[in-house]
Design brief:
This protein is α+β, with helices and mostly antiparallel strands. The protein has 4 helices and 4 strands, in the order αααββαββ.
Length: about 180
């Protein structure tokens, strides 16, 4: 068997050490490359999620949609925004006069809360009392139904008679936004 010289042994040990260092560094490099690829994939996934959320929760777009919905609601809403009390009194007086009734009282009773479907709205309430012949009272209520308000509600109606004169008392509620 041949003896290795001291120089050859040093070279063999150095070569083995270099190969071991290369293997170690190569494994570290491949781990770093894999980790980098995983991180890049995670970043891409997070960016996709952010883009999705920005698209879904785009505040500017949602604000524009809300403004458009409010505009449509104001233009096409079944409930008026406000009711002019003087105009309303004029309509009620006209309904009384068209029915041929002479005596009536009209008293604003404040605001109420009215539930319609799933929504809750404000109601403007008026207490009305009038008397006369029954046919004229029916005509008065028909006239009220013909008022230019689609959100009219009659509550608490009571009808009493004293001979041929009848009295009706009720609350008139106008539902507004």
């Amino acid at each position: 068997m041949r003896q290795f010289s001291r120089f050859q042994i040093i070279l063999i040990v150095a070569t083995v050490a270099l190969v071991a260092v290369n293997v170690f560094l190569g494994m570290g490099y491949f781990q770093a490359v894999n980790k980098r690829a995983d991180l890049e994939s995670d970043i891409a996934n997070k960016e996709e999620a952010i883009e999705y959320m920005e698209g879904r929760y785009n505040i500017d777009a949602l604000t524009r949609e809300l403004a458009e919905a409010n505009r449509k609601l104001a233009e096409e809403a079944p409930f008026p925004g406000e009711i002019d009390p003087l105009e309303l009194v004029d309509h009620i007086i006209s309904a009384v006069q068209e029915a041929g009734l002479d005596s009536y009282t009209y008293k604003p009773s404040g605001q109420t809360t009215e539930k319609v479907g799933d929504g809750t709205y404000k109601g403007v309430k008026y207490a009305i009392t009038t008397s006369g012949k029954l046919i004229r009272l029916i005509g008065f209520i028909n006239n009220l139904e013909e008022l230019p308000y689609d959100t009219l509600k009659i509550t608490g109606i009571s009808l009493t008679s004293a001979g041929e004169t009848w009295s009706v008392r009720f609350n008139l509620v106008f539902i507004i936004q």
